[in-house]
Amino acid sequence: MSLAERRRCVTYLRNQYEISERRACQAIQLNRSSYRYVGQQELVDAAYEEVVRLSERYPYFGYRKIYDLMRGSWSISRETVRLIRRREGLQVIKKRRKRKVLGMTTQWVNQARYPNHVWSYDFVFDQTEDARQLKCMTVVDEYTRQGFEITVGRSLTATDVIRVLEKLFEEHGRPVCLRSDNGPEMVSKAVQTWLKEKHVDTHYIDPGSPWQNAYCESFNSIFRSTCLDRWLFGSMTEARVVINQWLEEYNTIRPHGSLGGMNPKHYLQRWNEENTNQQPEILTA
């Protein structure tokens, strides 16, 4: 905020709320001497007014362009134009960063307590040999670390997300909560409305905080380092075959340190055996 703008704010506060100069200056964080200061030379002439008029008419023109507009008709230097604009607070408005639409969290879950309690899903990108994009949707059970599905396509929309989740709900039962970032496919009204109809809560992590979706990020990291980075896919069909084989190996062979050295399938079987009576009711789609 320029000095001129701060002065105008102080004047507005004094007139609108009838407060003292001291309090108004404290609110705007402006020294009272700066607010009262008046330059020794008041050069408000026709050229001065023309600079102000052009700057207000073309708010995205800098002082150089305003000077170019006036150069043929007015006797004024470029530095004078700059100082006038600075004094009046007429600098070019900086581009503001657009706010991203965020999803609505309906349940805050820190850690999954049993299978089908919390699922998380995300997207991983790669490309085929012809430099065309591959988009992979990963879905993980945070408690068992089981990878339910890796859907591969050139482009996956909110409609595809609903189709994949509906298929998984039918096969594994629906979770209590779904955790994800604020990607456009996840925060779309269609996905949020569909999940609400299925009575599935959502937990959207804070923007720029991937560690809040740690289980899915860990799965994606393993997926990339042990599969995507090792293969150069010639086609999307080849990618789907290789990725499905990798997912089967991940779920049935690969030991997990967090699961006591067991693979996700073995861990789920053991949990079911030990918690037959205490197992929560599995929700069905």
TrEMBL record:
Coiled coil: none annotated. Residues 111-272 form the Integrase catalytic domain. It comes from the Bacteria. It comes from Woeseia oceani. It holds the Pfam family rve_3. GO terms for molecular function: nucleic acid binding. GO terms for biological process: DNA integration. InterPro entries: Integrase_cat-core, RNaseH-like_sf, RNaseH_sf, Transpos_IS3. This is Integrase catalytic domain-containing protein.
